[in-house]
Structure formats: C-alpha cells, structure tokens
Amino acid sequence: MYIDPMRLVDCSTPFESDQHIAELKMDGIRGILDVDVSTRLYTRHRNEITSRFQEITAAATEAAPKNTVLDGELFIGNTETGAPDFAATMSRFLSKRFIAATPGLTFVAFDILVYKGKNLKHLPGYSKKSAAWLIGVQRGDKIIHAGTLTHGITGQAGKSIFPLLKKLTVRETRDYAYVEPIIRIGVRFRHWTDKGLMRLPVLERIII
C-alpha cells in the first residue's frame, strides 16, 4: 500500500508561540515505510528503495506493529553532532553496491498514516490536496527544465492562477498538464544541483 506524503506549508515570517517548538531540519530523503510481513520503503515519488536501506526496513519491522504506514525523513547524521549530512545521504542513496550498514543512518517518523490497519488520514493535520508545477528558465530562445515546484502554491496564489493555467493548457499526461510558457514566477531555492535543477524551490511571487 502506498500513501502520498503530506506537503509542507511555506511561511514567510517566523512566529512565537508557547505551543510550538523549533528543531533542526532533518535534510534527507522523504520516505514512506509500509510495515507489514514484508516491510517496504518508498520515496515521495513512489519509487521503492527497500533494497537500498535494508537496515531501516528491518528495524521498522521489529519496532512497529504490522499493517502500519509511517511518513518520515531518511538521512545520515553526523555520529558526533547528529547534524544531517545531505551529501552522505545522497551518496548512500545513489550507491549501486550492497551496503550492510552506515553509521548515523536514521529514519525519523513524524506522522502515522495507518496504525494496525486503521486509516488515520482523516484526523486534523493532514491535507488531501497537493499541487506541483514544472518550472523552467529561459536560456536564449529556449526554456530549460529547472525542477518541480511544490512549496508556496497555497491559498490565494494557487486559486488565482489555476483558471489561467487551464486556459493555457496545450497537452496533458497522466501526471501533468503542459501550458504555454507565458506565466513568469519568482522563486527562491537552496542551490543548483549537478543536474542543473533547483534544490527545494519555493514560490515567492507570480508575474503575469
């Protein structure tokens, strides 16, 4: 069984509240653990990566009851400080050879989607709606793919642009509708990846 993970909501300003705590961002790979007789691990894009992190699935089988689905973050932390090491995480993720164990490899579960067969998605805190935009940058007379935008498409921003996107649609696939490249947006992102894509882009403004 696979369940889509809940998306983060972007906040433009910090807040103070005695009802909340702040903690270090676990910068790694979003993972969905489906714990059953045979435990499986998936990325947020629904790619199964069970064979790459067998020590995680083995530990989950022992720790969680059967027919439970956990949403969390998979990362390698510094063994002394605990700080996430994204480069080390990706190196392990992309490795094609079998690795029995990696010091600091951690799975942090921050949501229980299913517990002992009971679906918990209807409880407060879970959003059934998700949105993603393919984005590109103009290089000369061409528009080059620059990644997928999921953060910041919330509230009025998403509602105001959706009717225009429908009018500009030129073709559709199962996952995406492709539109005329007329709409310009402003985004902030962490850095450019080796593949020339934006790392964690966030919508800041829409320019029409």
From TrEMBL:
Tell me the domain of life: Bacteria
ATP-dependent DNA ligase family profile domain: which residues? Answer: 15-126
Put simply, this protein is called ATP-dependent DNA ligase family profile domain-containing protein
| Organism field | Paenibacillus enshidis
